[in-house]
Every structure is written in structure tokens, then in C-alpha cells.
Design brief:
The chain is mainly β.
Length: 129
């Protein structure tokens, strides 16, 4: 049975401070890799792995003064997401992002009048508990 987390019940902390209006959190772990070729063949014989980074995006309803300040100051922070399942279930998962930097932001206002800001961030590592 899959574990289904609810965005409405989940929350995030930036340097221990709650960020209101979370709409979505997306991240991916990227690992550099290089293929080692076999001489006289079109197949690889080995793979060498290199730098591993985390790239993510937070979408916040309206905006976040805390994240705007971190972007402006190019300051490092820690992001902790507490993912919770639907009501009636106390199961949670904590995802921690270390040594984060906000690298950019974009703003949108839709036809229904709802504003949202997307904050792109990178992290040195992600830990799931």
C-alpha cells in the first residue's frame, strides 16, 4: 500500500521558523556521472560517480518574507519538511535539507486572483527520516 502524504497537513520550517502558505515542495537529487567506454566497443564497462547535489522548489501562496530575505542576503539556511498523511493517521516523514541557498524566485497571479511565489533552492544534502 503506498504512503500518501497530504499537502494540506504538511508543513515546512526554514531555520526553525514556520513558513505559511505552502502549496508544493518538489526536489530531486542529481549525481554527476561519467561512462567509461570499452575500447573497440560501443558499450560502457564502468561508471564513475561524482558530485551529488539537491535541487528543489517551494511554491508559497502569495510570498514569504523569510525566503525573500534569504535570497536577497544570499544566506545559508536549513529547510525541514514535516510530511503528514491524511486525517486520522499520525504517520509522518521528516525530510531535512542541509546548507540550502535560495537561487531564484518567480511570481504568478492567476485569473482567480490567487498569487503564488516559486522559490528555487539548492542543498548540499537531503535526509529522510
Amino acid at each position: 500500500m503506498p504512503t500518501v502524504f497530504s499537502a494540506n497537513r504538511s508543513s515546512i520550517l526554514v531555520d526553525g521558523e514556520a513558513v505559511e502558505g505552502l502549496q508544493s515542495l518538489v526536489f530531486r537529487v542529481v549525481t554527476e556521472r561519467e561512462d567509461i567506454r570499452a575500447i573497440g566497443s560501443n558499450e560502457r564497462v564502468e561508471v564513475i560517480f561524482g558530485l551529488r547535489t539537491v535541487q528543489g522548489e517551494l511554491v508559497i501562496r502569495s510570498a514569504s518574507v523569510k525566503l525573500d530575505t534569504l535570497l536577497q542576503n544570499r544566506a545559508k539556511f536549513q529547510l525541514v519538511a514535516s510530511l503528514k498523511r491524511t486525517e486520522g493517521n499520525d504517520e509522518t516523514r521528516t525530510v531535512s535539507f542541509d546548507d540550502c541557498f535560495v537561487e531564484g524566485k518567480s511570481f504568478r497571479l492567476d485569473a482567480h486572483g490567487s498569487a503564488a511565489t516559486s522559490y528555487a533552492f539548492t542543498a548540499t544534502r537531503v535526509r529522510e527520516e
